[in-house]
Amino acid sequence: MWHVWEERYVDSLVVNGIAHTAEVEPETPLLWVLRDSLKLTGTKYGCGIAQCGACTVLIDGQATRSCSIPAYAVAGKSITTIEGLSAEGTHPVQLAWIELDVPQCGYCQSGQIMAAVALLKQTPKPTDAEIDREMTNICRCAPICASARPFTGRPSCRREGGPKHDCEA
Taking a C-beta distance cutoff of 8 angstroms, is the pair 54, 107 a contact? Predict the structure, then answer.
């Protein structure tokens, strides 16, 4: 519930399992509440129009682009950021990301990881078509399939002997 206080709006948001109070206008994009008000800077700004996915967080377990969803729309919902997966970076997807040497520049990685977590929670063994449909985050450094496919239990196209895929064209 939003409450007016000195021409600002105060609400309690549940982020990473902790209730936080944010003093923002209700239309403020969730991304800026996370980064500026709550100082959770793992979620990145990329495009501001929900296209690139650098700002992906989980809202009630669903991958959501936080740059385009207003703060009022997430009141009462569970929000998970990259910081909330594990304090030490030991979530299985984070560990696999490191083990498989997926990161390039790293800027989009938190959004990529959050999208992968949501996909694997919904579909533990996704097909290539499901990965292509669900992992729509943009990476300027490497093909998406190189970062998503290892979590299926099948070789990545980046690895020797991996299946041919669009990214090799």
Answer: yes
